[in-house]
Design a protein that fits this description.
This protein has 92 residues and is mainly β. 0% of the residues lie in helices and 40% in strands. The protein has no helices and seven strands. It has a four-stranded antiparallel sheet, with no helix packed on it. The chain is globular. The two termini are 14 Å apart.
Length: 92
Amino acid sequence: MAQASDTFNRSVLITKSDTVNFDGSTYAANAATKAIPADAIFVGGAGIVVAVFEDGTTGAFTVLAGTLLPLKCIRVNSTTTTATLMNALYQV
């Protein structure tokens, strides 16, 4: 599980979307190629983050600015998400 002391060596600026994953693919439960989940999300601006996990389920998290969410997720939905300045972090 990702923690604040972890070192990440890849960062992707998150563009909130209800259909497009961090890697540019679109979610489909039966897709042959699955999106690669981030190891964590850094949230620069406080608010709600609606994360989408590999199986298509979602979780809503209320966070403060500067929060590191240790979530293995593939997307942040634009609907309901109010947090800003988010980055998907990877250990590759």
